[in-house]
Amino acid sequence: SRPQKVCLCPFLPIHPLKVSTCLYIIQHPAEESRVLRTVPLLAACLPPDKCKILVGRRFSEDRYPELATVCRNPNTLILYPGAEATNLEEVAVMSSSPSVMIIIDGTWSQAKDIFYKNSLFRLPKQVQLKTNISSQYVIRTQPTNTCLSTLECAAVALTIMEKNKSIQETILRPLQALCSFQLQHGAQIHHSKEHLLRNGLYDKPMPKNKRKLRRMELLVNNVKI
């Protein structure tokens, strides 16, 4: 669906990746309108039955019986960081059967709203990624240097679950090409908010909301700004 000169098809795998893990992408409706979203690239790398996308804010058992069944499956994981989350690598070591992983696609505030306001998502085992990888999605601003896009999270998670390092490289290839094309056509590299604040480069007005201001202070190790 892109112009020929910036076509990403040559950077996609010739055949969908063979994986046993099934991904359920819970996508906030606002993501559908973003031109440079990463989920379509992820879906293009995987078999249709291994990457299912559900769009919405609220997911009840009545309206989404299949999702409810998935959430009650003991082999289902939900990728969402927090105090209750287990390191995914620890879970992968103990798991031998095919798993289902739920990933929320949206901004951090949108993902938080979806996670906490849908009781179904509290049923699966909560996991998180422990990684120092910096995001390669340099055409969008991330809160911190280690915040990853949905595609990058899926790539790392699948690599861990499938115990196959080549998966991450294959899934990230179209993202790298996308960013390269955008930079060649006038886009600028977006540093994280953490980087901008640490280096005195943040040029937007400071938020008046004390909670938001406190969150930004935490990005620079509690240094007053």
Automatic annotation (TrEMBL):
Broad EC category: transferase
Report the record's Gene Ontology biological process terms.
tRNA processing
Q: Where is the DTW domain?
A: 1-187
Official protein name in the record = tRNA-uridine aminocarboxypropyltransferase
Q: To which protein family does this belong?
A: Belongs to the TDD superfamily. DTWD2 family.
As recorded in UniProt, its EC number(s) are: 2.5.1.25
Which transformation does this protein catalyse, written as a reaction? Answer: a uridine in tRNA + S-adenosyl-L-methionine = a 3-[(3S)-3-amino-3-carboxypropyl]uridine in tRNA + S-methyl-5'-thioadenosine + H(+)
Pfam families, per the entry: DTW
